[in-house]
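@channel sequence for tomorrow's demo:
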Amino acid sequence: MAQRLLITGGSGYLGRRLVRRVAAAWPGEWRYTTFSADPLGLPQAVRLDVRDAAAVARLVASFAPDAIVHTAGSNTTPDMATVIVAGTRAVAAAAARAGARLVHLSTDVLLGGDRAPYDESAAPAPVKAYGRAKATAEALALAHPNAVAVRTSLIYGLQEMDNGTAWMAAALRDGQPVTLFTNQRRNPVWVETLVSACLELLDLPYRGVLNVAGQQTLSRAAFALRLLDWWGVSERATLTLAEDHSGRWPVNCALDVSLAARLLRTALPGVDDVLAAASEQSSTPSRQDAQTQ
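structure tokens (generated this afternoon):
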């Protein structure tokens, strides 16, 4: 069982929730990395630029983790491709030298979007720079002999607004145009589901690609409208629905999550099930308060 855990990207949306969960219950030693701001401010934080292979190697060698969850790198990072590719190369190499289990966060948008639903055997066919970078990173991670690449989808939470929903809400409140696509299909995943799955995978022998996402496939438009309703965003005057024929994003990235459903104890609820369960809980925090957390 893993006792010493390192989390990269601890200031990101998923990373923050992972760190909070680990801080509450992890039985051993652990650290998390941040690049600039650290909204959590915990003593286990380590400042690290994952692009710096020597710095990554020093940290991993000195801390000697049994397992690493690599979340650093997103499509909002200015130096996106370098952070994703060079960062994963450095982390995977250091993990291999340390003999550490590696759980690498990948994405459904490295897929082509024209042959859904996709199981774990699907070869990457990215149509966007972010997808190309993540496809390269996934291959680098899987070169490590004890790695699992978690292909996941749109990550959302109900206590902290995700970045995409926050952008939409701000734009709509400012009267800016927002277009939601009705033909882009994904499997949104509750952040609590993804955190549980990543931690469970630390001690499972599974290696290779694993699809971990919600079992419900929704269009981007349907998903966005559900979350805008949840957060009480009523401004809709500048919102339009349309099909995306630009070719800039893969259209249908629906994932087959049947393998993960068999392998994991962690349930993979869809958006409607998560929202229904949360609505029934009288202890659910105020959504307006949660937006300011």
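heads up for whoever presents: Residues 105 and 150 are 5 Å apart (CA to CA).
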